[in-house]
Write a structure and sequence with these properties.
It is a single chain. The chain is mostly helical. It has one domain (8-51, 64-85). The chain contains two helices and two strands, in the order H-E-E-H. The chain has helices at residues 10-33, 66-85; strands at 36-40, 47-51. The longest helix is centred in the N-terminal third of the chain and has 24 residues, at 10-33. The protein is elongated, with a radius of gyration of 28 Å. The model has no long low-confidence stretch (mean pLDDT 79).
Length: 91
């Protein structure tokens, strides 16, 4: 069985490579115009588009206050106590 690329000439392949390079340049310009950044994938060594970070946006984990943690804990304990009193083993 013949491979589809076996019938393609070297000249045609070179032309296809040039066209592919032009497409990649145009795609990069489009990403830039649309507000997307460019990040290289460490596994594939190709570029992937990623939305650019907005200035002033928070990064990292959100922190919960001790009061909020205590309130959530109290609600959970009350929920479990109610379930236990009803004889349930799971919520």
């Amino acid at each position: 069985m013949n491979h589809p690329l076996s019938s393609v000439s070297v000249k045609q392949l070179q032309r296809a490579v040039k066209i592919k390079a032009k497409i990649e340049v145009l795609q990069a310009k489009l990403r830039e115009a649309m507000g997307f950044g460019q990040v290289l994938s460490p596994t594939r060594k190709t570029s992937m588009s990623v939305k650019a970070k907005k200035p002033g946006k928070r990064t990292g984990r959100r922190k919960m206050s001790a009061a909020a943690k205590a309130k959530m804990s109290a609600v959970a304990k009350a929920r479990w106590a109610k379930a236990k009193a009803a004889g349930k083993t799971s919520l």
